[in-house]
Structure to design on (320 residues):
């Protein structure tokens, strides 16, 4: 009996290459190998061999085996280096040799390569370019993946299955996520200052950017009535910040990060790195600071209510 090609579990084929192999074969069948002409040999190394092995598998059961392999891939643990903001990659590999960088960049999604290279010294970029066609032996490739992967957290597959309510937020782009943080920050301030005198309100308005101040003033004027407990929590959240030390352009998003950190609890803690590494380090560290402070002391029931509030805000913000 034929067995599914073992090469799919090879260390040369990372998750992205495995997914490409499986999806291409499911969609294009025996014509899938022609798709490799669209890529440089280095970027898809090992994929052609995997496709050839799959093509030897009986056609009668090939699609079901491909589908099963794709499901196994979807439920495997995710190492965050493959999806982290390029800034984390630069920070993590700072000081490594041009050889390590050259091998590493071959594995990056094309959209991230330019950003990573732009943050490296000119001489290092030149040396990386001279090594760009290098194809490492399998043991070297395995060493590199271990070296990089060990510096980033893994998210267990079970974390996604048991936290499906987070899916829409996980799928937000970094830009959309930062827009949501601004929205949460403005919403939190509107709640906190809904029953505060004009003098105190004026003080916070002077700490905001012109755009944020106008938006907050408009929300407060709407005179919406909030649950007293929600108002108190919002006020305490803002009071806990060292507002005077924050830059004008950072204040609203900082408050938003605080709100977001209250939506995660011990039940969903495994998802936290997804959001930290989605962002550039400058913002990821801010979110991590709030998560370190709040995550394990958050009441799960309260956290679920905050999550619903965040999802409602996201739905309103990004509705068609």
């Amino acid at each position: 009996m034929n067995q599914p090609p073992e090469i799919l579990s090879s260390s040369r084929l990372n998750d992205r290459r495995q997914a490409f192999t499986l999806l291409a074969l499911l969609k294009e069948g025996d014509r899938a190998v022609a798709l490799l002409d669209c890529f440089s040999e280095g970027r898809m190394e090992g994929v052609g061999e995997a496709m050839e092995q799959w093509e030897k598998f009986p056609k009668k059961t090939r699609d079901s085996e491909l589908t099963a392999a794709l499901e196994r891939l979807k439920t495997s643990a995710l190492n965050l280096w493959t999806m982290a903001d390029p800034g984390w990659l630069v920070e993590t590999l700072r000081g490594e040799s041009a050889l390590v960088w050259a091998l590493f960049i071959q594995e990056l999604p094309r959209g991230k390569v330019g950003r990573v290279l732009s943050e490296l010294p000119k001489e290092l970029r030149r040396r990386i370019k001279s090594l760009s066609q290098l194809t490492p032996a399998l043991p070297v490739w395995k060493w590199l993946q271990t070296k990089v992967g060990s510096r980033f957290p893994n998210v267990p597959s079970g974390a996604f299955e048991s936290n499906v309510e987070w899916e829409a937020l996980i799928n937000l782009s970094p830009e959309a996520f930062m827009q949501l943080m601004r929205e949460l920050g403005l919403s939190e301030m509107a709640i906190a200052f809904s029953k505060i005198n004009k003098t105190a309100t004026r003080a916070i308005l002077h700490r905001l950017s012109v755009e944020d101040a106008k938006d907050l003033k408009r929300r407060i004027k709407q005179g919406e009535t909030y649950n007293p407990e929600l108002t108190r929590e919002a006020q305490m959240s803002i009071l806990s910040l060292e507002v005077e030390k924050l830059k004008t352009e950072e204040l609203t998003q900082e408050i938003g990060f605080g709100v977001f950190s209250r939506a995660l609890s011990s039940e969903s803690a495994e998802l936290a790195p997804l959001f930290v590494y989605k962002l550039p380090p400058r913002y990821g560290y801010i979110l991590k600071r709030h998560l370190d402070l709040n995550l394990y002391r958050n009441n799960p029931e309260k956290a679920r209510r905050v999550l619903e509030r965040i999802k409602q805000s996201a739905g309103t913000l990004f509705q068609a």
Notes: The first strand starts at residue 78 and ends at 79. The longest helix spans residues 174-192.
